[in-house]
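To whoever picks this up:

The parser on our side crashed when reading a file containing two proteins. I've narrowed it down to the boundary between the first structure block and the second sequence. Both blocks are reproduced below exactly, byte for byte. First block:
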Amino acid sequence: MAKQQLLMLGIRASFHTLSAVLVAGVIFTTVFLSRKVLPKEHPQSDGAPNVEDGRDCNLFEGKWVFDNESNPIYKEEECKLMSDQLACEKFGRQDSSYKFWRWQPHTCNLPRFNATKLLESLRNKRMVYVGDSLNRGQWVSIVCMASSVIKNPKLMHMHNNGSNLISFKSLEYNATIDFYWAPLLVESNSDDPTNHRLPERIVRIQSIERHARHWTESDIIVLNSYLWWRMPHIKTLWGSFETLNGTYKEVEMVRVYEMALQTLSQWLEVHVNSNRTKLFFMSMSPTHERAEEWGGKTNQNCYGETSLIDKEGYNGRGSDPKMMRVVENVLDGLKRRGLNMHMINITQLSEYRKDGHPSIYRKQWEQLKEDQVLDPSSYSDCIHWCLPGVPDVWNHLLYAYIVDNHHST
């Protein structure tokens, strides 16, 4: 009888052992298979950009992925500082897909954007965007993104007294995000933030102090300058706008652009504390003014476009590679002299977004003529970008550098 009981106990023990082995096998198989079927387009990570397969993390090579769950970060009508130049929905745009695209790098993931984390990183600091209306649009974007978590309007403040400087402040974090109007970076006759549409453009190519003294002491400086240079030659002035004895000379555009950026780099080298200040330069923002370049009709532009360009590596004539190389060379020279300025390469990823411009859906500053009304493409804005939209992604890339300490490869 005792032997029979021992035998039964042994059978039960063997059964439990076998059951445990089978359960462990099922769990292992399930985990293994679930890892094998993970989609290649991972969702955004919560931390720094994670690299796949040991490859370098290039945030600027990738593709657009439709994502109506995490995008947009804010609603157009809820952003108190939205610009009528960029509020496409307010001015009648019916399609909304332009708001739902996120950028997915090929070899890594962007960190998930967190507005609270951004404001915390800017606590007691000043971030300033310096440049033209495209940089101003990017400033509006970052303010909308940051203020999306500020529920009490009394905890944020904006100051605009009509000067070149517009200032946003989060009072809770003592965080300041400014925009400074300087479309050519150096001094020019287009420096008035309101009255700058002039028949002739003149730059003082070696003069930047009048602008730079307003932003040099900032903790983060984001610069851009591109579209205002797009002409064959530009008149340069050696002297002062206030006197009549200056010397004027027409200079080929790429050369004068290089001279202006050299003036900028020399100023930064002398006046910026590299231990305190992070420097960024936004690359060219492409235009979409010739539909035939992406297979559309001749004499048309971005008007009516609601889809992306799907040809990888597409480049239109709205971008000038020679100017891009000038920026790269100037930044390389600055780095060799001990001051690092990151270029945020938005050009290629923005090339695909012919759908992202305001087109006719923005405030018209002047009364439209009858022939314009009959031909909407004639007054379509294919330079600036709707918000929410493409500039939010530019700021998301900046976020990876500022908040999560991404470094260029």
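<<boundary where parser fails>>
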Amino acid sequence: MKKIFFFLLLSGLFFAQKTEVIDLSKSIKDSKNTYNSFRVIDQRPNKEIGSILFHKNQVNIVFENNPSKDISDWFYKYNKAKGNDKLVLLLENISISEDIKEKYSIGKLELRASTFKKKNDGYHFVNRIDTIATISSRNTPYLAQSLAKKITLSLADLLKDSYNKTTWEFGISENDLASYNSILMDKLDILKSDTLKEGVYKDSYSFFTHNPEPGYTIETNSKGIATKAVKSDDKKPIRNFYAFVHNGVPFKVIPVGYVEIFRDEMRLFIEVKKEELFPEPNNSSMVVLGGGIGGLIGSIVANVAIVAIDASAAKKRNAMAGTEVSLDPLTGYYILPENFGKSK
């Protein structure tokens, strides 16, 4: 009788714990065949990803084997070793948790991973993802499946974006990879300079390493709005650049215009609204956004007036509260605060 009871107990435990295997089948092909090798370094402090409850059963989210093997197999499935470079994926954190409410639950994914190009002098930073995603059971009952899919999509985006990213010139030893963020941040000239270099910056790497496009000057219209970067007969719209510095003031180009960049002791940030970073498709109004006193270098500058081609758009902006959004110095991506753009 005891043996039967013990068997039933084990059977109940077995069926109460299920797994959701992360499906790494999405294409991550590099059309340029840049890399001839790929490696995964798993530096996660906790190798367990996490679990979600489904009908009182615990569903563990797992890799089929382990992330090093599975992600490497995934890469080579879509990329034949033809190039000359070596790509390395550093896994820093993948964790899933669940907040169980009275009538629903919220699954939360935290994922941080980076890519590097391996050279003779060390690992050169390429790209990273540092994201938090939440999914409510109100939207889908299959939280474990949805969160596992989100892991796949996030890693796929990271790898595909890495194929075309500018590689940093600073090499880091493998022993120092865990501290790559602080090492690279210490090398960013624009965070230390009292005087900013005038001109336009084609991407985030050139901006944060303080290297504007040589020979270009900024052209403004009759209202003082920066519209073009000019070099002899070459004229490029200001919207084609990541950022620019005009009269000592740095500006970030965004979909609806540009906004002043500020700095405090810890970060670079802009003051912006969700509607300006993620405008509706039919919103063609350009608004030039401004800040008050101060700027990246901490000097006193005049208020930058809100100027709009469409006066109604400027009026609408004044009625909405702005939010501080940080800029990731290593990728140029926006670091959105929690509940960004949501009504309080």
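After patching the parser it read the second block fine. Residues 117 and 210 are 22 Å apart (CA to CA). Confidence is low (pLDDT under 50) at residues 5-15, 283-315.
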